Amino acid sequence: MISYTEALEKILSEVRHYPSELISLDQSFGRVLCEEIKSDRDYPPFHRSAMDGFAISSQNYTPNQVYPYHRELPAGMSMDLEKDEKAIRIMTGAPVPEGLDVVIKIEDANLMEVNGQKQVSFSTKEIKPWLNISKRGEDLKTGDLVLPKGIQIGTSVASLLASLGKDKVSVVKAPKVHIISTGNEVVPIHSSPLPFQIRDSNSYTIKSILSKYKIQPESVTHVPDLESEITKQIQIGLEADILILSGGVSMGNLDLIPSILQKLGVELIFHKTAIKPGKPIWFGKRKNTIVFGMPGNPFSVQTCSRIFLEPFLRESYGQNQLPSYKLPYHGTKQRKGGLTEFFPVQLETKDNTYLKPISFNGSGDVRAGVFSDGLGIFPSDLSQIQKGDTIDFLPW
Amino acid sequence: MISYTEALEKILSEVRHYPSELISLDQSFGRVLCEEIKSDRDYPPFHRSAMDGFAISSQNYTPNQVYPYHRELPAGMSMDLEKDEKAIRIMTGAPVPEGLDVVIKIEDANLMEVNGQKQVSFSTKEIKPWLNISKRGEDLKTGDLVLPKGIQIGTSVASLLASLGKDKVSVVKAPKVHIISTGNEVVPIHSSPLPFQIRDSNSYTIKSILSKYKIQPESVTHVPDLESEITKQIQIGLEADILILSGGVSMGNLDLIPSILQKLGVELIFHKTAIKPGKPIWFGKRKNTIVFGMPGNPFSVQTCSRIFLEPFLRESYGQNQLPSYKLPYHGTKQRKGGLTEFFPVQLETKDNTYLKPISFNGSGDVRAGVFSDGLGIFPSDLSQIQKGDTIDFLPW
Predict the structure, then answer these.
(1) Which CATH superfamily is domain B20-42+139-172 in?
(2) Do B162 and A205 touch (CB under 8 A)?
(3) The domain A48-134: what is its CATH number?
(4) Residue ranges per domain, chain A?
(5) What pLDDT digit, counting tens, does each position of B15-69 carry?
(6) ipTM
(7) How close is the nearest chain B Cα to the Cα of A16, in Å?
(8) Which of B159, B216, B327, B389 best tests the A interface by mutation, with the highest count of A CBs <10 A?
(9) End-to-end CA gap in chain A
(10) How many CA atoms lie less than 13 Å away from A170 in the CB half-sphere?
């Protein structure tokens, strides 16, 4: 049985690259950029006043020198100096006129009016060129590479794209995904299950994960454990870019999925990996279609989605992987068996930030992941985790 | 000037509670639950086999005892024991028949066939009642409170709601939001700005933040610094639940917003707070409408949105606040002035997880927050941060 890291490597080596589409910036939040973005001009595009105050020249400045002035320059306008003009009242965001190189803030100015002539002086002892001015091009120069492909459009990126005038952006097009849940015991969520039946929660788990990647699945189906029905649905499912199955991959003799997949020419890449929960996971491909066969327990599906499906999607989108953290764990664990174990934990902050265990009854517990912030990892080569030990943490 | 924490308290004491709406679970990902959810039945709803194997009774068990068997019980069906029936082949997820209380996994079973009679024995030395069985009600009992109001519908919650049969859920209805950006220097993002103009990035910053809370603003407008125009747009904006302005709140004499707001009967709650960036922020209310007047610089808007607007929305939604973390900072900072400072940082993990500084040129820098994972906080009462010191961190 292959290890967690081997399984992840095999999955990541099967990534597919999906085409791009051009959409409006308004619709792009959370999507992943599919083009390199270069600066369309210098930023700031002009020597910009960072304060409300007076623009003057640093040359020959002496404290308490009196400057006559008669003009005000707001943001959104520009001015050329007139003959003998040595000071201009200037607003934040306005372009500092050529010939001036300092802005003294209004709080440091002494305003006077003598014979109808406005005047100003400053007690500031010493001034250096470019005081309170954001120089043209100091943030970015025309043509600078600003954003690489593969970056997700969060708030700061959306703000930058808007500044750069990108009202349309090229983003990764969502792949076509089919979801099939299996199992005679599984019924649709709006029905009243018989005592020995359960509702189909796994489709919702998977749809929720996909929604993080702005994927709306093309079809979501449930099939009973009937070879002909499963075969028919999988044949349809194999027309998608990604087919995600849940249930039917463990040891029971009604677990038909692996044999049907192989009959339909889906190449097995691995079946089973040394993890808990999620051990029976099946992974394979047929041409461009990737097939994830997830186990049927709710927490197994949540875990497999987080540790395998999400990394696959991110790599396919050209994104960095979600970071894993190393934080102190305020609980203990003893090794039972040789599997890498994933368990729900909560983040808590007192003097520092640490992880706190959450109690649950195994992978079939319908509320296992609720109230957790992510998964702690108990690696297979550790015999125990002691209170305060640093462990890996994968946020949801 | 009030402090950061005083400003935040004043904002949080003005929260409004928005009505609920009933939507399908499919559409609810990322929304916030507005009803308490109770368990509709016991979970598991039956004594559920956790393994593929054989169901037997723990009473009078001895190792290597031979059990005849002739029936198989898959998940999705139930069986009553026949007279003298002592063992049933059982699948994961199937209900353990009454009278049996142990499942021995298939890997530990010795299968035989004697004169056409199927038999099984187990070498397992000792078995305890309920081995490999998830007992009815061990996760949840009928009527248990499972989810409180105010929880966000992430993957684990969506999975649980589906298990419980909640195909429709009551969620907080998004408030009506109007966005107005101001400033003569600001032009729409699809236009080619003159050298002394900049594009309206702040509307996108705010729209992106709102999208995290599933809010689609009702209107997004830009107005030049013209009293009549601003007045007209603010009057319309005051019909919303939340009016968010950007620009026009600092010291410049074209910064008309505060005076217009007060003329229109908006009660000032505070103007200016001891933070950097974002110091000029204006906050007030008129009847049920809350007004945020944000400064004009891109990074100031990102910061004010994260530290003030998001907490306001979360509190209004009945959600917990986003956690703040305390992590070691791998940089240094010296105090200049008495403001609480927010600065972009990156998370990095080697032996442990720490924060790394990102260089930027102040709040006007269009790429300040890009590539950052959140904001570090340099509190006003600290004189310096030394490498390795633990600081507060607010993830984006």
Answers:
(1) Molybdopterin biosynthesis moea protein, domain 2 (3.90.105.10)
(2) yes
(3) 2.170.190.11
(4) 4-18+174-316, 20-42+139-172, 48-134, 325-395
(5) 999 999 999 999 999 999 999 999 999 999 999 999 999 999 999 999 999 999 9
(6) 0.94
(7) 24
(8) B159
(9) 26
(10) 11
